[in-house]
Design brief:
The structure is a single chain. The protein has 169 residues and is mainly beta. It has one domain (4-168). It contains one helix and twelve strands. Strands 1, 2, 3, 4, 5, 6, 7, 8, 9, 10, 11 and 12 form a twelve-stranded parallel sheet that branches. The longest helix has 11 residues, at 158-168. The protein is globular, with a radius of gyration of 14 Å. It starts with a strand and ends with a helix. 42% of the residues are buried.
């Protein structure tokens, strides 16, 4: 069962969040929201993610720091056909247990055998505190616009994504 330290509200951009997600699945969670996010934050990521968004549109996260917790898998995960995601001026600190820093278009319980197709994703000036490249895994998502940073974008071919989604069902 997923647990969340902070749940975003529909249509609201929060500011100045300082959160410790230790012991939770995700620190910040957004589900099926429009025009929501956080401007200015410092968080310790949960056991799965620092930020996790599924479904909805026009999410915005900017001016933040995400520190990994001892079991954090990924700093940021977005999935479920989101239309519009901006990640801007974010620093990622520490190591995650999975190799990716950002995951786009992973399987969700809402897929039910069909592809959802994330789109309109911009990653702008997202950096690692250690100076390394930010690893971005792109599954069921159109190519993200990655600017002003050092990124390693790994995009799986569509046929492999379909097989992956079928296995995860």
């Amino acid at each position: 069962m997923d647990t969340h330290k902070y749940i975003l509200k529909d249509g609201s951009i929060e500011s100045g969040l300082v959160l410790d997600g230790s012991g939770f699945s995700e620190t910040i969670k957004g589900s099926n929201l429009t025009g929501s996010g956080v401007d200015g934050f410092s968080i310790i990521a949960g056991n799965e993610d620092g930020i996790d968004c599924v479904r909805g549109s026009d999410y915005k996260f900017s001016g933040g720091v995400i520190k990994s917790g001892p079991k954090t898998r990924t700093f940021i995960t977005a999935k479920g056909g989101i239309n519009g995601l901006l990640l801007k001026d974010i620093v990622l600190c520490g190591k995650t247990t999975w190799w990716r820093d950002i995951g786009l278009g992973d399987h969700t319980i809402y897929n039910k055998g069909k592809m959802m197709g994330m789109r309109n994703v911009t990653i702008d000036n997202v950096t690692r505190a250690d100076g390394g490249k930010v690893n971005v895994l792109v599954l069921d998502c159109k190519k993200p616009n990655c600017i002003n940073g050092r990124y390693r974008v790994i995009r799986l071919p569509g046929f492999l994504v379909k097989i992956f989604m079928m296995i995860k069902r």
